[in-house]
Design goal:
This protein is 11% helix and 30% strand. With 121 residues, the chain is mostly beta strands. The strands form four sheets. The chain has a three-stranded antiparallel β-sheet with strand order 7-3-8, with no helix packed on it. Strands 4-5-6 form a three-stranded antiparallel β-sheet, with no helix packed on it. The protein has a two-stranded antiparallel sheet with strand order 1-10.
Length: 121
């Protein structure tokens, strides 16, 4: 009886630790606030038309091609820039806002101002 009770208490003691999940860098699907989250920068058109995106906390721009896409794709730093490039270039300014859908995979998204890849289940 004491052994069973001890195991039960041990399991219950670890339960609060299981309440947090960290999907950092694993492309996990996470729930964020409703948004919208604004973005802007410079883009050279290499990937074609983009639907929306966000600047990740790793410095890369993540985009998706259409509203139905559930995964944001990391763009190369050579094609997306936060600041206007110097000298002659083919970049165009872009801006917009994005509202993440339910269960959307958003690597390196900081939730629009904090948290960064951490959620409570």
């Amino acid at each position: 009886m004491k052994k069973t009770l001890s195991l039960l208490l041990l399991g219950l003691g670890a339960l609060p630790l299981a309440g947090c999940a960290d999907d950092y860098a694993y492309g996990g699907r996470m729930a964020y606030g409703p948004g919208p989250y604004a973005y802007n920068g410079w883009y050279d058109g290499y990937y074609g038309t983009i639907y929306d995106g966000y600047w990740g906390n790793d410095g890369y721009f993540y985009y998706r091609r259409g509203m139905g896409d559930r995964v944001y794709i990391r763009g190369d730093r050579g094609h997306f820039m936060r600041e206007a490039p110097r000298g002659p270039h083919n970049y165009q300014p872009f801006h917009g806002s994005m509202t993440p859908g339910p269960r959307t995979s958003m690597p390196h998204f900081n939730g629009g101002g904090g948290g960064g890849g951490h959620r409570h289940r």
